[in-house]
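Why does residue order matter? Because the sequence determines the fold. Keep that principle in mind as you read this record.
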Amino acid sequence: MSEAIDVAKTPNIAKAGGGFFGHPRGLAVLFFTEMWERFSYYGMRGLLILYLTQHFLFSDQRSAVMYGAYTALVYIMTIVGGSLADRYLGQRKAVIFGAILLVLGHFGMAFEGEGSKEYLQIESGEYEIADQGRGNGRKLFIEYEGERRRIVFEGSTGALQVLDFASEAKDPFVPLGPSQQESGRPWWKLWGEWPQSAEMVPVATVIQEIPNNAVETRVERQDLYVNILYLSLALIIAGVGYLKANISTIVGALYKFEDPRRDSGFTLFYMGINLGSFLSSITCGILGIVYGWKYGFGLAGIGMLLGLIVFIWGQKYLEGHAEPPDPEKLKKPFLGPINVELACYLAGILIIAVSMIMVMNSHLIEDWFVGAIGLAFFVYLVGYSFVKLRGDERSRMFAAIYFVIAQIPFWALFEQAGSSLNLFTDRLVDKTMFGVTVPAPVFQSLNAGFIFLFAPLVAWMWIALAKRGREPSTPVKFSIGVIGVGLGFLALVAGITASGPTALTAVYFIFLIYWIHTMAELMLSPVGLSAVTKMAPARVVGMTMGAWFLYTGLSNYLAGIIARGTGADTIGGQLTDVAAAKATYAEVYTNVSYVAIGVGVFMLLISPIIKSWMKLDKPKADETAPAGARPSPAQ
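Structure:
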């Protein structure tokens, strides 16, 4: 939302240019660059967990940890990319380099190969499992007694059933209801098939049934394409590391510190983030599930390419705000024939190598090791505060450390959206709406859509409460956000329980959890990093910002561990025991909900203490605009 600006009172406006809703033209360049970057990131992310479990046939557990490691590294590497840009490269060069890496990574995801092959081993022999379709429209077949036969899993016991049904055009199930009419695939149904659950009855004959405990499988993967997957994820990690935080820094550089348009400029920029997320979840989600993985990933790559083109074309509108701090320093030798600028780019290659190794071996990383990293940095921050800071500075720093740590339970649960919640939506939710079965990744657009609808209302609410002296403090808002993310999962558990042990959960419970989580996000995310940059002394705000990104990354890794706990047994990427899977989801989500609510209540109780640490009535001793301050890349 743009604000009315008095040009006479703000002399730097004419210099900046008012070509984008009264803001500098450079904001338009950054708006569309970031919009397309987020389009590519969220478009790919919405498909990733399904791609891992259905195309490469990784287990739910390994896929969840791999996904968690990937999202964690995306945030952690912004520390490296931001530091290199601040010290040497400048934001413009860093963003271009990051965008090139992102284009390569996203297009790399489109090289899918033929997929992994799984072989079913039962008493009568070994059978190669053939698959058709993606998402909940996926079907499995084997060559049985010389003929192609459909295989399914009985909902309540998980027993494997071989059917005398080989048609790929129709489904051998009909909904359980008064009419008992044959299902078929109506002309108005754009994608997917009828959902399969215990609430449906087969019209095909079961020619053999094998108990769950008598079935074994083995998987063969194409090593070349698995390694392309790892490399592509590593390229995206490095690309986001160089681009994400730096493009936000350029937005701030377009405005002088006292420019009244600054906050509304970031609001417009934030809307670009959510617009990209909203559009990609729908378009990439539909293309990837309905037409093929490569089309969804390819569209994400096209989006990033458009972002790169926009940024290169619009460099002139940045007015030199993103240039290297010392251009001559970039030309100085670093090691032999390698100068400083080339060394900064080679650091990106090192990030790619490290990220590829970590994602590839994420299932081998011990949980305690990741926790130890977080604990060690926490001890360092507290120790630094005791040794180097005094009085109000120390008190404010303690408040900043609190907010850095307090974000962990929120993001650990909120980020289930791309992993366990995405799988749950795909497998165990009746997604048929108005006669159309909606692909699971499309539902991830709900978060951005709800932000469009409710962020202005929340902002108005805070203003109205502030006028009455009733606006909650930042620590109270934080606690409400953490409680809210727990309540969201309790709402979903209510839907899981209401639907029974094997039936599909009603789709409106997915709308409900995304709405609750979005409202919780609006309580926590917009104020979190703002509080950190206000509380930390200006001379150490860069270190504190690094801590914020580090713990955001660790939160995402913890999200992967939680998602791992929801993992279910699958064959060909399909659940073998629906009842057991639903029970596991309900148990894990209930447990993490209670933990989050308990933590949130504790945070609410200690909020007066944290507010006293913040010392809002006293200015910071070194109140300057820190060069390293940058908005949160949480979106």
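Residues 1-17, 174-199, 619-635 have pLDDT under 50 and may be disordered.
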